[in-house]
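On clarity, I found the account of how folds are encoded harder to follow than it need be. Since the whole study asks how a given chain folds, the encoding of that fold should be made plain. For illustration, here is how one protein appears when written out as sequence plus structure tokens:
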Amino acid sequence: MVLALLALTFWLSGPPPGVSFVIDFMRKMALSAGAWIILVLGVARFYGIRIGQNAWGMAIGFLIFVSSEIANFAAFDLSSWFIPIWRFLHPFAYVFMLAVWTWALWDYLPNPQKEIDSSLESLLLSEWQRQSAALHETIRRVIHP
């Protein structure tokens, strides 16, 4: 949903004069997707959420492809002599993305599990039971006032 709102914001800004609407829209969509992936990875890193090799590889591969999309459409806007170069290089970015995905997904490595201290298990279980009982009581009161 956030990605759609970001893309809508970019779309409402409209293309600059002399720029194709479709190229401008595609460039802004690629920028939105890249910004969203960087934001998610940054938040995960900031809060210390460990992400496995598979997820990191998919994100990095997609960011490489999205970056080539942004460069591709920006080059179309700059000059027409960039078009033959980027039409040749852009498929290689896609193949490179697939290669990164293949490397990242070749061995299934699940996301690392968070280790819980065994002394906390009983505390967490009792807290979960307390909250579950409170939820059941609230639902009972709502259904039968």
Q: What stands out?
A: The two ends are 37 Å apart (CA to CA). The chain has two domains: 20-111, 115-145. DSSP finds five helices and no strands in the chain. The longest helix spans residues 21-46.
